[in-house]
Amino acid sequence: MSAELVRTERRGNVLVITLNRPAVRNAVDLPTALALEKCVDDFEADQSLRSAVLTGGEQFFCAGVDLKAAASGERPRTARRGWFGFIEHPPGKPVIAAVEGPALAGGCELALACDLIVASEASTFGLPEVTRGLIASAGGLIRLPRRIPRAVAAEIALTGDALPAQRLYALGLINRLCAPQTVLAQALLLAERIAQNAPVSVAATKRILSLTEALPEARAWSEQQPEIDRVRASEDYGEGLAAFREKRPPRWQGR
Asked: Which of 42, 49, 148, 153 is the most exposed place for a label (fewest CB within 10 A)?
């Protein structure tokens, strides 16, 4: 089932994860959420994989919850990773959303759960739940105001209207804005660049960014220190210094 609903492909140290329900614009039902969770678990467990790209293919990213399945009482939420098997507890390794076409409702929230976003100039992002008597409950109301100005986030959430990628790129939500059909290639370049770095340092950096995001600065300093101590005690820390001294590429072990 995982192979049908969510496809994966290795590109060196990068895993490409592709939602594969084109008939419903990659809307997510419970089997798809479970399949995505399995892919994420496998990605976490494989030490040779350093980063991932999450995409919906060349036409659309994700239309959110499968409303037909939802109407029958189904919720695409798993016990461990929450909405879509990803959104509430993303992997500890970096994930880049590669967005072609619409990223709406839960699809927008899925992109927001990733660390970076690469998007097509033709893509759109929105939280249309209020137009259907629903509410954006998969993190959009929490994460979007932290990533763009609150007034713009409120406009998106309260009107239900989608905004074009160009506007959101200007506001800093999107890391790379690309021509249509080039998004995956650009996202892979970014993922490969991250994958060149020390896995221990990258994972700790991601944790610190997440942990300290909403903290006062004084507390953030103390909260980051245990992560810094773990990095300094790692083999990768010693290898990085040795490689610099010896003028050679580092050989990361991820420990």
From this structure: 42
Which of the residues 109, 192, 213, 235 is marked catalytic? 109
User: What is the DSSP secondary structure assignment for residue 72, as one 8-state letter?
Assistant: T
Confirm if 161 and 215 have CB atoms less than 8 A apart.
Answer: no
Closest C-alpha to 94, from 195, 196, 236, 225: 195
What's the pLDDT tens digit per position in 197-255?
999 999 999 999 998 988 899 899 999 999 999 999 999 999 899 989 999 999 998 88
pTM for the full model?
A: 0.94
Residues 171 and 211 in one domain: no
Look up 129 and say whether it is catalytic: yes
Residue 107 lies in a domain: yes
Q: Token pair of 252, please?
A: 């990361």
| Identified catalytic residue from 121, 129, 213, 217 | 129
Residue 251 lies in a domain: no
Cβ-in-10-Å burial (0-12, 13-18, 19+) of 104 comes to buried
Residues 16 and 127 in one domain: yes
Q: 106 near 127, Cβ under 8 Å?
A: no
If one counts the domains in the chain, the total is: 2
